[in-house]
Recover the amino acids of this structure.
């Protein structure tokens, strides 16, 4: 049975990890706050490899006599690392402060400067799994709603709904997650970015501007998907319930790769055994659903019948269907895959 | 009786097969398919229990663990194969000595698998070893493949980069990348000793065994081992399975291509074997020709260019925003089924585009694979084997054939075959355990023949006769005679379960792939779902310029294949 999009105890997992290996700073089971440091890598900012044998034109046997510093030694700018003795002496000096990290096979490697790469968790939660050397998987729970699409970014902040955004003072929107009731135009995107909102949630997006939404610096979540739709009543009631609360917007996740869906949730601070809050409906009958395809995209209905036999769709595709009653009492037969189950 | 179990783990669905030779030769005894993430233990258990129920072979014990492998025990499992297409693309770095003999072959090698290249270092273009180290240290990757030089050739540049890799391995001691060395073999031992990274080092043969010749087959065993180790890290709960001594693991694309290579070697028609496996998440294109394995793993995308291309090949007028909505929403909800004719048109056009895009990519990567989007395949492949849930969701075989025919645009005479229960991956992985198994299972008519396609290339203008056919259904029945005109797509229906002979008599300027212009002859065609399809539309396909007329023509072709 598919889990509904709206859950009282939605489990959200997020893997915070470094692009390159470093040190994991948390342990399994650790409770972490938002923005907690998960992993850190200290890398040399620059490397310099000097081929002593070839540059000095010496034999391997002469190398030891030329080396003035050993691996592991700290060096200052101008320090002599290697010197070829003789009438025409040649010298290799440290171009800046650093460390000799390797003297090997006739080459000396200097590491200079320091570059710190950090990974932190944008959501509060519990460390559920350590990814050795890279980071950790953070698991959080809370009342939440899954979305069709997110632009890959994460935010948290107080959820607000602004009916007429252009008339709202920008400072009132700063660091808030804004529920958009109007279509996300170019002008509105600029306005929200200038207002420094933490994130935005909308019902549907213009499919021809998907690349623009993906690249937008503001974390964005779209509940129904791409097309023309307003918030359905069930999702809207959930968003209304979230107003004024601190919510987390997790815009990452791509169902096509089997990972979790993007979502918006109110993190729960106290721990509850998950089974007490099982949101999975026992039967699909009576479930409230949202249509994913045209011509009913974004509209609501309720499953009233589950026929046993497969049926031919208008396209000719043979599929198991469910019978859905829409708000206007019309009855539609539709494959389960073409519906988002909102709640049981 | 020997029982062989196989399991294929894909992103959202896993499949299970059990083969045994209880009837005297190997046959498929049980098959199950389960939806769920590949590391969902309960899902795996449900799948295995479903196969147990069908076959009465005990696979898991009451505690949900795999039964011990014992080929001598009646009903015991002899061996198991696991194929995997789930998982994120593997971030890869490639390092080589030259563009032509290292970098291009490495790109080709890695495109075969689910990988993405995060870093390329061509040692000729980037001779500065400090810069090389900088790039290696600053880029995240899980797999590095190093190649270059002929055996016994110059070593200096390779030695320098191996030194850098040694340092990198020290810097990344907690999560080291897998390193595959496929270069000058004189340095293989040096690389192993220098790097000191144990099982994270994989020594392959030199992909350039002699000057000017590239052979990627030398790199596969080492690369497969590296991929297995990476997937173990990605799916730690499956590690015991992947590492089990009686379990063979392969990426599903490689398992399928093993079967493609075997089929090519066993058939006598001197043609290649092409496989297209398409699921909502990705498309695998695998070609075996003249003993060479070629392939591309292409993850699905819906970029502005993809949307534009799909909108251009619809057979119904649908506004571009609706096309874009369908495609983008399908990425969000991969189980979505086309329920209207408009949605079906988009779905088919998207599949057409995905196949053509993958063929084009392989053609760009591999100089031995020849495909042009308007001219189609330039080499002969027979059979063309199709599999995957995307094809399975089409309304009929004619929809499937039309989608593939229009994107592949084969040349000459070929047979399209449908792998109903996706047997090629399990057979490919189990072939190592018992080579009789794939041979005997393939002989059990395990595949569905869709159609024999005869493609006629002719310079004749539209509506001019280019081919005459004489169809002999045997058993003393009257022979059917058909004429084919330039621009025609014609279906010759024959009785199902009935192999027929066809005499092809092309016009003197037309080519049906018999080796010479105007040369025809008798062709035996196997029984198939759609019979014989004659594609006289030419290459490029004759199409009206007007968009509406173009759509109408596409609809007519689909109708021609049968209502």
């Amino acid at each position: 049975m598919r889990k509904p999009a709206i859950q009282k105890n939605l489990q959200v997992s997020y893997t915070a990890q470094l692009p390159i290996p470093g040190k994991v700073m948390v342990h399994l089971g650790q409770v972490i706050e938002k923005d907690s440091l998960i992993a850190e890598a200290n890398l040399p900012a620059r490397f310099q490899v000097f081929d002593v044998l070839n540059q000095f034109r010496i034999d391997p046997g002469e190398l030891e006599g030329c080396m003035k510093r050993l691996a592991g030694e700290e060096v200052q700018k101008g320090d002599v690392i290697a010197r070829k003795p003789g009438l025409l002496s040649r010298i290799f000096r440290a171009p800046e402060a650093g460390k000799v990290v390797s003297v090997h096979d006739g080459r000396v490697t200097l590491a200079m400067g320091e570059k710190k790469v950090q990974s932190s968790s944008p959501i509060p939660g519990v460390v559920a799994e350590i990814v050795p050397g890279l980071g950790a998987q953070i698991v959080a729970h809370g009342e939440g709603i899954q979305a069709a699409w997110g632009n890959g970014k994460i935010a948290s902040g107080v959820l607000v709904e602004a009916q007429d955004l252009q008339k709202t003072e920008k400072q009132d929107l700063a660091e808030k997650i804004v529920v958009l009731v109007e279509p996300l135009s170019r002008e509105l995107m600029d306005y929200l970015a200038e207002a420094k909102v933490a994130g935005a949630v909308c019902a549907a997006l213009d499919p021809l501007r998907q690349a623009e939404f993906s690249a937008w610096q503001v974390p964005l979540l779209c509940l129904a998907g791409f097309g023309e739709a307003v918030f359905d009543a069930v999702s809207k009631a959930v968003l209304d319930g979230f107003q004024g609360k601190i919510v987390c917007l997790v815009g990452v996740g791509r169902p096509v790769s089997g990972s979790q869906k993007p979502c918006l949730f109110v993190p729960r601070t106290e721990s509850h055994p998950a089974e007490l809050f099982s949101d999975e409906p026992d039967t699909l009958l009576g479930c409230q659903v949202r249509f994913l395809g045209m011509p009913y995209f974004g509209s609501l209905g309720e499953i009233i019948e589950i026929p046993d036999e497969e049926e031919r769709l208008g396209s000719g595709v043979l599929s198991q269907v469910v019978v859905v009653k829409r708000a206007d009492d019309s009855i539609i037969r539709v494959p389960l895959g073409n519906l988002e189950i909102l709640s049981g | 009786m020997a029982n062989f179990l196989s399991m294929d783990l894909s992103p959202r669905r896993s499949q299970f097969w059990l083969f045994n030779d209880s009837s005297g030769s190997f046959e498929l005894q049980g098959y199950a398919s389960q939806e769920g993430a590949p590391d969902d233990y309960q899902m795996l258990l449900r799948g295995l229990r479903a196969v147990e129920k069908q076959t009465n072979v005990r696979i898991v014990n009451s505690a949900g663990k795999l039964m011990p492998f014992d080929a001598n025990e009646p009903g015991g499992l002899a061996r198991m194969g696991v194929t995997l297409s789930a998982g994120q693309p593997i971030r890869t770095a490639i390092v080589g000595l030259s563009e032509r003999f290292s970098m291009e072959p490495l790109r080709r090698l890695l495109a075969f698998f689910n990988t993405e290249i995060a870093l390329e270092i061509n040692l000729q273009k980037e001779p500065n070893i400090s810069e090389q180290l900088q790039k290696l240290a600053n880029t995240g990757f899980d797999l590095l493949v190093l190649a270059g030089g002929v055996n016994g050739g110059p070593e200096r540049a390779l030695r320098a980069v191996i030194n850098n890799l040694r340092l990198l391995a020290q810097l990344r001691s907690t999560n080291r990348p897998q390193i595959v060395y496929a270069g000058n073999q004189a340095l293989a031992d040096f690389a192993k000793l220098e790097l000191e990274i144990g099982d994270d080092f994989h020594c392959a043969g030199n992909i350039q065994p002699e000057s000017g010749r590239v052979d990627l087959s030398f790199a596969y065993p080492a690369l497969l081992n590296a991929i297995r180790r990476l997937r173990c890290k990605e799916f730690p709960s499956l590690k015991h399975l992947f590492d089990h001594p009686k379990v063979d693991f392969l990426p599903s694309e490689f398992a399928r291509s093993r079967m493609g290579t075997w089929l090519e070697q066993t058939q006598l028609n001197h043609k290649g074997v092409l496989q297209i496996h398409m699921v909502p998440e990705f498309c695998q294109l695998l070609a075996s020709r003249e003993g060479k394995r070629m392939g591309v793993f292409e993850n699905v995308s819906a970029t502005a260019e993809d949307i534009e291309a799909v909108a251009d090949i619809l057979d119904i007028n649908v506004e571009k925003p609706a096309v874009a909505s369908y495609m983008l929403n399908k990425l969000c909800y991969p189980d979505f089924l086309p329920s209207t004719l408009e949605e079906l048109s988009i779905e088919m056009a998207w599949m057409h585009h995905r196949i053509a895009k993958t063929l084009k990519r392989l053609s760009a990567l591999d100089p031995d694979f020849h495909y042009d989007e308007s001219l189609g395949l330039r080499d002969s492949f027979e059979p063309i084997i199709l599999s995957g849930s995307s094809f399975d969701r089409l309304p009929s075989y004619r929809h499937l054939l039309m989608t593939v025919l229009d994107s592949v645009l084969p040349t000459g005479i070929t047979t399209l075959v449908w792998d109903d229960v996706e047997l090629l991956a399990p057979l490919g992985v189990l072939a190592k355990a018992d080579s009789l198994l794939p041979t005997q299972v393939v002989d059990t008519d395990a595949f569905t023949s869709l159609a024999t396609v005869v493609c006629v290339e002719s310079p004749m203008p539209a509506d001019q006769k280019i081919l005459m056919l004489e169809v002999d259904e045997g058993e003393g029945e009257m022979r059917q005679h058909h004429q084919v005109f330039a621009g025609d797509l014609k279906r010759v229906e024959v009785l199902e379960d009935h192999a027929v002979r066809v005499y092809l008599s092309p016009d003197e300027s037309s080519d049906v792939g018999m080796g010479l212009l105007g040369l025809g002859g008798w062709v035996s065609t196997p029984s198939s779902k759609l019979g014989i399809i004659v594609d006289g539309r030419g290459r490029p396909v004759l199409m009206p310029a007007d968009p509406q007329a173009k759509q109408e023509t596409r609809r007519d072709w689909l109708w021609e294949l049968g209502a």
Summary: The first strand of chain B starts at residue 3 and ends at 9. Chain B touches chain A through 63 residues (CB under 8 Å).
